[in-house]
């Protein structure tokens, strides 16, 4: 056991990831009951002494989003009332992140509301991966460690030996993220302009960048219906791209997403396990962020810097 002061507690959203983090660190998962009453209420009981301990609660706010969020808030409250010395909410996927601004009249800023709830429940800090919008860090009045999945994705992508690589964002909003990848790969950059007709229907309208005869890597932070990346991939293919791969940090794939990936021109979709993913026989490669989060947890517990975790090998 590497650190007897460190306690890791898992909710029900992504227990395999929590177990993988514990295996990396070398500590057992803390014995905890996280159950549901017949009426739907969540119940949490920590069966070990955590008084004075450094507690890390692992919970993604993936579907069922509201249940998992409430579960996390109750876990935080349970740890606070059990006299934990510090409580870190480890949220590999931060839900409600797309509701980060008022872009219509009379709508909420739910990403801020969730930040307020986490803080009010008793979280002392937050550890997360690839926020949909970086400014969400400013919604918190407690420290936020915002990790990037790029070092995890890079090792797999570089083995593909892509030729004449061009990194593309499937929409204008993701250009900054795609640019970071392009700079590390030292390759060309482009993006696809789109029109959104509904929550599930997207039309790719035009492309900025030369992809003829090139291998293209589509970069996005999250996908559910795969509408954006598949529409972008079809347009890129029609402009003469040789191969198309996609890398997405959070793959909250629904049935429609699997169907689109099955019919689309994407050769491989590379994702992480911030959300549980079932490839369902499709060319979906799932990479684990457990070592990334595990190393971050160790450094936070030891009051060390996490800056070097943003770098890829060889850079």
UniProtKB/TrEMBL annotation:
UniProt-annotated catalytic positions: 194
Matching SUPFAM superfamilies: PRTase-like
EC class name: transferase
A molecular function (GO) term: magnesium ion binding
Bound cofactor: record note: Binds 2 Mg(2+) ions per subunit.
EC number: 2.7.6.1
Reaction catalyzed: D-ribose 5-phosphate + ATP = 5-phospho-alpha-D-ribose 1-diphosphate + AMP + H(+)
InterPro entries: PRib_PP_synth_CS, Pribosyltran_N, PRTase-like, PRTase_dom, Rib-P_diPkinase, Rib-P_diPkinase_bac
Protein location: Cytoplasm
Cellular component per GO, a single term: cytoplasm
Binding site for D-ribose 5-phosphate: 196, 220
Function (record text): Involved in the biosynthesis of the central metabolite phospho-alpha-D-ribosyl-1-pyrophosphate (PRPP) via the transfer of pyrophosphoryl group from ATP to 1-hydroxyl of ribose-5-phosphate (Rib-5-P).
Recorded family membership: Belongs to the ribose-phosphate pyrophosphokinase family. Class I subfamily.
Protein name stated in the entry: Ribose-phosphate pyrophosphokinase
Lineage: Bacteria, Pseudomonadati, Verrucomicrobiota, Opitutia, Puniceicoccales
Gene from which this protein is expressed: prs
């Amino acid at each position: 056991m590497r650190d007897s002061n460190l306690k890791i507690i898992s909710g029900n959203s992504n227990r395999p990831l929590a177990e993988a983090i514990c295996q990396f660190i070398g500590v057992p998962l803390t014995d905890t009951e996280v159950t549901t009453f017949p009426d739907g209420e969540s119940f949490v009981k920590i069966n070990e002494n955590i008084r004075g301990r450094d507690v890390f609660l692992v919970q993604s706010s993936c579907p069922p989003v509201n249940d998992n969020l409430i579960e996390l808030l109750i876990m935080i409250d349970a740890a606070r009332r059990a006299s934990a010395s510090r409580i870190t909410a480890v949220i590999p996927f931060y839900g409600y992140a797309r509701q980060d601004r008022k872009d219509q009249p009379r709508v909420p800023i739910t990403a801020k509301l969730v930040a307020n709830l986490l803080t009010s429940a008793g979280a002392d800090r937050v550890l997360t991966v690839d926020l949909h919008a970086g400014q969400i860090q400013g919604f918190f009045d407690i420290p936020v460690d915002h990790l990037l999945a790029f070092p995890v994705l890079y090792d797999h992508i570089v083995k593909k030996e892509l030729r004449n690589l061009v990194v593309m964002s499937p929409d204008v909003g993701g250009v900054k993220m795609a640019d970071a990848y392009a700079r590390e790969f030292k390759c060309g950059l482009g993006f696809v302009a789109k029109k959104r007709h509904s929550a599930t229907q997207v039309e790719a309208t035009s492309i900025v960048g030369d992809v003829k005869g090139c291998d293209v890597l589509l970069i996005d932070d999250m996908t559910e219906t795969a509408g954006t990346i598949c529409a972008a991939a079809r347009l890129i293919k029609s402009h003469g791209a040789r191969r198309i791969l996609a890398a997405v940090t959070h793959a909250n794939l629904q049935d429609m997403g699997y169907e689109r990936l099955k019919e689309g021109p994407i050769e491989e979709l590379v994702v992480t396990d911030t959300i549980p993913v079932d490839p369902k026989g499709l060319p979906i490669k799932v990479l684990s962020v457990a070592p990334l989060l595990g190393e971050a947890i160790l450094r936070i517990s030891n009051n060390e810097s996490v800056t070097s975790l943003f770098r890829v090998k060889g850079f």
